[in-house]
Amino acid sequence: MAGQTDHSISIFSAAEVEFIAEDEMIEIVPNIRMNALNLLCGDFGPFLPQIPCTVPLWLAVALKKRGKCSIRTPDWMSVEKLTQVLEAERESPREFQPLPFHYVEISRLLLDHAHDDIPEVYMVRSLIEDIRNVRFHKVESGLETISGRTHAVKLKNLSAMEVNLVRPFMARVLQAFYKHDSPEMVQQADTSASKRPQVVDRGPRRDLRPR
Amino acid sequence: KKKKKRREQKSFPSQIASLPSPNPRHHPTVGLGASTCAMPGYYDISDILMEDEAVSVAFHVGANGVGLLDPGTETNSVEKGAKIDLPFWLAHELCRRRAVSITIPSCFGQKMKKDVQADAACVDLGTRYPYFYEFGCKLFPLVGDKSIGPFLRHTFANRYKEMLSKSHTASLNAIPKFVLRLSKEEHQLFEAARSSMVEFKKWRVRDLGLMKTTIVGHKRKTDLH
To answer: How far is B150 from chain A, CA to nearest CA, in Å?
Structure first.
């Protein structure tokens, strides 16, 4: 959970990341008539049957569970788009394709609760699984290139859940490498600096304490 | 001698357990590394346990009243030049006062170096030297051998590569054999990776129940390279 007693690495549990993801807006088509909802996070207009409107994901799932609406799949979750993304992921071994930040959580919620609203549900599910696996392999291979001179590791277009997965491990590894490396690498010539685009090296370390 | 005493006075930090900066002029390359090691803190249990490791020291001066340390002595004192095994915390303090000189323990010796060169990932640090890295970091400024630092880093870098893939895919129950070979510090890394992975998997199949098989069934190898 966030804010554990071990303050060196703060971990978000997966449920917490999902909670944050539920703030994303999504389109629904209600099938009841309801007055406008004036909530702290915004006003969601009067609901008329068969008129689509945009609401936060948590509200959409709640309405769906009560059978009061049907959820419209977001654009990026169509089979064609996902196949495109998968092909692109497979082709470029170092870059991540731009995907919505919370795609894992959103897709899981929709696949759980609204699977009758999604065309070709099984295909979508397996595509998302594959995309996730491919991206995770890339993260792992990127982590392999961490050497002592890495100040930070840059992973572009990574999604919230994936970041949460590697966060404790990566933080600890960077700390450990830093601990082992400070005096020695300053002496040695920089021949082994990694040149992959994912690892950003901002130059030699500076002594912070005056000697 | 007076000069040495004055330098020692200066280098006495407010906390007792901070890493030594005994004499920056003697170890110019070492000073920064020692003081920027990850601060374990005075109350850290693993740090306390680590300092309990025995090191072999050679006394420069005679010491009275501590014959307990040397099992072979008849009088209640230790002689100059005697070689004794002391716990690290004691040796460390005595070394700062220039009363002893520490000899490098076997875990950083030639045999270990050969083992690491052969295959770093197979070296069994878990059972023999669980505090390998921390110990090395602390020993580094006290002993004259400057090759310990790069050696530690080299070992860690090689073992890290092996560990990376295995730690993420390890499941909760099956403990792969290599976990027993990890030092305490590496073990923490491994645990962090594994627990976050396991938690994510649990979250994914939380509500699915019977639908789990459709996800688990798609175990195709992804060809990247």
So the answer is: 6
- Over residues A92-104, the mean pLDDT reads 85
**DSSP 8-state assignment for residue B121:** G
Asked if A187 has any chain B CB less than 8 Å from its own CB, the reply is yes
- Complex ipTM tops 0.85: no
* Tokens describing residue A121: 């549900």
Model pLDDT for residues B3-60, shown as the tens digit of each residue: 544 444 444 333 333 344 444 344 333 333 333 344 556 777 777 887 887 777 777 7
Of B63, B130, B67, B143, nearest to B101 by C-alpha is B143
Single pTM value for the model:
0.68
Q: A-chain residues within 8 Å CB-CB of B150?
A: 184, 188
Q: How far is the C-alpha of A57 from the C-alpha of A49, rounded, in Å? A: 19
Chain-chain contact of B149 with A11 (C-beta, under 8 angstroms): no
Give exposure, A53-70, as e/b (b: 16+ Cβ within 10 Å).
Answer: eebbbbbbbebbeeeebb
B165 reaches A (C-beta below 8 A):
yes
Beta strand A152-153 with A37-39 is unpaired
Q: How many helices (H) and strands (E) does chain A have?
A: 6, 7
Q: Is B16 exposed, middle or buried (0-12, 13-18, 19+ CB in 10 A)?
A: exposed
Predicted confidence (pLDDT) per residue in A13-49, tens digit: 888 888 999 988 999 999 888 888 888 888 888 888 8
Rounded Cα distance between B164 and B184, Å, is: 16
- In chain A, the N- to C-terminal Cα span, in Å, equals 41
Residues of A in contact with B198 (CB under 8 A): none
**Nearest CB neighbour to B218, from listed A129, A161, A165:** A129
Q: Is B45 on the interface with A (CB under 8 A)?
A: no
Per CB-CB distance under 8 Å, the chain B contacts of A109 are none
Residues of chain B in contact with residue A7, where contact means CB-CB under 8 angstroms, are: none
Report CA torsion sign: A86, A88, A90, A94: negative
Angle between helices A160-187 and B132-139 (to 10 degrees): 30
